[in-house]
Amino acid sequence: MSVDTAPVGSATPAAASPKVPLRQWLAVIAVATATFAMVTVESLPVGLLTAISGGLGVSEGLAGLTVTLPGLLAAISAPVLPILIRRLDRRLVLLSLLAVMLAATLTSALAPNFGVMLASRVFVGIAIGGFWALAASVAVRLVPERHIPRATSLAFGGATAANVMGAPAATLIGGLTDWRIAFGVVAALGALVAVALYALLPKLPATTIVSPRTLLAQLRNPAVRAAVTATFLLVGAHWAAYTFISPILQQTSGLDATLIGPAQLAFGVAGILGTVVAGSAAARDPRRALIGAGVLLAASLALFPLAGATPAGGLVLLVLWGLAFGGVPVGVQSWIFKAAPEAAEAATALNTSMFNLAIAAGAAVGGVVVSATGTTGVLWIGAAFGAVAGLAVWATGRSLAK
């Protein structure tokens, strides 16, 4: 059974014309802004853990569950939700998930105790996983086929921008005022995004339904299997090392602690640029775009202990690292659309689940490696994962060409 994706550009009759109407691009931008809000909500507690733990009377370690729990729930909901929604209009589903996120974030802002806070974060995780499973496939239904890579890069660019601007801005708001106000501000952003999606998205009826058989069938597709594997390895490689970026920059590169924040901003800006560049490259050859991102990521991490031993060298490699990782999501997703056009939603759901699992697994493996060998070890481990991912994509492409 095939997945419920209508032919690209079928959302409106105008999509078939050579020139895409502005309203359709505004709809894509609205989807990107929604991903921006979702990712900001997911990572919001990271910079506010101390304030949250103090305000709710729990340890910082326990407060860390507000970050890890949504990630685990997102990994579960990503493949499950497409099965449950069956033939529901995807526009309605996205709006409903935004409403869940909005209600959960408001509940977080008003939580009288840690139990209520943690319960609200469970619903945040469910909303994030479901939204991510649908967002990319919805975005590409709004434009003609030749604009799919650009629409994909815009959709994922919203997530990258959240890491660069959304989470830091919310942390700043919480630091200047109160952590509850930061949650309230992000909830207000979610409400505005919901209004924009309601006004701009056309009806997006399902054509067929996703079943467990559909999901399992994607794992038998060599290209999809390689793409999902590449996601796990590349995202895991990134988070294994990036979780410890502050000690890496200080201990390996000798960067002053006051410059860590600006350095991370440079990384984020490079990530946005990498998303744009990879989107353009994927329009020509998504497989090569993904291989390029993997090779650059592996090289950046491998060279860090050597060429990154000075502040200047560390910053250059950090920017290259950002460029590489920014290209990973759009490269993988573009290849999935090409490898499984009739089952894009099911394949995307699997990839979204693997993405969230990789974040948790990468951070966990990184912690073990850093404890045993120090920051240099985690850089080498990340480089090895990146190289294996590139080889997997290359080998799969060769086998499919035969």
From TrEMBL:
Coiled coil: none annotated. Keywords: Cell membrane, Membrane, Transmembrane, Transmembrane helix. GO terms for cellular component: plasma membrane. It is found in: Cell membrane. Residues 27-401 form the Major facilitator superfamily (MFS) profile domain. It is a multi-pass membrane protein. It comes from the Bacteria. The keyword rRNA processing does not apply. PROSITE patterns: MFS (PS50850). InterPro entries: MFS, MFS_dom, MFS_Efflux_Transporters, MFS_trans_sf. SUPFAM superfamilies: MFS general substrate transporter (SSF103473). One of its GO terms (molecular function) is transmembrane transporter activity. The chain crosses the membrane at residues 25-49, 61-85, 92-110, 122-142, 154-175, 181-201, 222-245, 265-283, 290-309, 315-337, 349-372, 378-397. This is MFS transporter. It comes from Nonomuraea diastatica.
